[in-house]
């Protein structure tokens, strides 16, 4: 047995899947159990609203920062809490923090004295809004349980990608949508009301018909607490299958090996995505399909599955012993040896 196999064997986890559910404290304390996409036209505030909720900047790559647009799928996790003091006024009693926040922090409202109760742990899939990146958006839509549709209040509605993204999630049969009328700080009240009516006309007869419309300013963090309340009250946790054989959909992957590294120095690969069913544990043996694709002399394509072992699991800032359906796994890929599944935030 190699050193890698020995480490994986030592860390192999015993867990009874029948005792878990998406809101079990031992689950949502470490991992998100629902995926929510942010969709809409370019520059309507999708990445900004994710940062306002989660505290995580999803625009990370140099070319994205230079152009101030999302090009690749962005991922971020957030914990959503509610104050246990019944006198704490809503929606301010709902707050969100990064995924590594403790599970029972004190309420920040002056003089409240209550404690925050963890209600949801959410993965956000931040989709690009540019028209040439629709394929990337559709890739992210494959793992969404719900969506936040961003519509800028200082532009006419609908814009091209607003319509296309809405059509895409309609095809994906996504039923739970919250519409965010963003940038209301840049509009007069009368203009906001007129824009609100145009949103109602736009979504009439679509999957978003009847969806709540929340006026916000993501930049100023205005009404972010209201978004948190709507996520808790209007987006149900999907029914998850924890007991079947595990299956994970890979959204992105990474090669973290140094170019020209010797075989003994290879660290393995990193796959990011979301578990569709079952539970993955450190030490589990896995099969990656389709795996390695080759083409023969006649042009026929053949594939060979890749067999490996999970050495580590991560959900954004949190290391995991096991991962459950919902949420994204991947992104922290240091110290992996053969295969590491990370919280996609999409993170996988």
Describe the structure.
By secondary structure, the protein is α/β, with parallel strands linked by helices. The protein folds into two domains: 3-18 and 241-343, Elongation Factor Tu (Ef-tu), domain 3, CATH 2.40.30.10; 34-234, Rossmann fold. 21% of the residues lie in helices and 30% in strands. It has eight helices and 15 strands. The protein has helices at residues 3-11, 25-28, 46-54, 62-67, 134-141, 160-171, 189-203, 224-234, and strands at residues 34-40, 74-83, 94-98, 116-126, 146-152, 177-182, 213-215, 247-255, 269-277, 280-281, 285-295, 301-315, 318-320, 322-323, 339-343. Helix 5 (134-141) runs parallel beside helix 6. The longest helix has 15 residues, at 189-203. The protein is globular, with a radius of gyration of 21 Å.
Features:
single chain, 348 residues, Elongation Factor Tu (Ef-tu), domain 3, Rossmann fold, six-stranded mixed β-sheet, 8 helices, 30% strand, globular, disordered N terminus, disordered C terminus, translation initiation factor activity, GTP binding
């Amino acid at each position: 047995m190699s050193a890698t196999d020995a480490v994986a064997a030592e860390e192999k986890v015993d867990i009874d899947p029948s005792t878990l559910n998406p809101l079990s404290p031992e689950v949502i304390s470490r991992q998100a159990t629902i995926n929510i996409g942010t969709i809409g036209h370019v520059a309507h505030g999708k990445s900004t609203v994710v940062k306002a909720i989660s505290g995580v900047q999803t625009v990370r790559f140099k070319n994205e920062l230079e152009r101030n647009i999302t090009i690749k799928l962005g991922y971020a996790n957030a914990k959503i809490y509610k104050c246990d003091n019944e006198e704490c006024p809503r929606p301010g009693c709902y707050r969100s923090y990064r995924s590594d926040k403790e599970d029972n922090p004190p309420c920040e409202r002056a003089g409240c004295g209550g404690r925050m109760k963890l209600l949801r742990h959410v993965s956000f899939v931040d989709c690009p809004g540019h028209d040439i990146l629709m394929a990337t958006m559709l890739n992210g839509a494959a793992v969404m349980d719900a969506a936040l549709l961003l519509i800028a209040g200082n532009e006419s509605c609908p814009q091209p990608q607003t319509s296309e993204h809405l059509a895409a999630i309609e095809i994906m049969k996504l039923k739970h949508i919250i519409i965010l009328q963003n940038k209301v700080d840049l509009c007069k009240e009368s203009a906001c009301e007129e824009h609100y009516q145009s949103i109602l006309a736009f979504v009439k007869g679509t999957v978003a018909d009847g969806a709540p419309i929340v006026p916000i300013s993501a930049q100023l963090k205005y009404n972010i607490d209201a978004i948190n309340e709507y996520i808790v009250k209007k987006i149900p946790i999907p029914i998850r299958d924890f007991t079947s054989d595990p299956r994970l959909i890979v959204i992105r992957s990474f090669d973290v090996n140094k170019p020209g590294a010797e075989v003994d120095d290879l660290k393995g690969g990193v796959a990011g995505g979301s578990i569709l069913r079952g539970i993955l544990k450190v030490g589990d043996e896995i099969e990656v399909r389709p795996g390695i694709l080759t083409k023969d002399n006649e042009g026929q394509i053949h594939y060979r599955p890749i067999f490996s072992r999970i050495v580590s699991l991560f959900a954004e800032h949190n290391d995991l012993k096991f991962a459950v359906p919902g949420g994204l796994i991947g992104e922290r890929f240091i110290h992996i040896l053969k295969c590491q599944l990370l919280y996609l935030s999409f993170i996988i």
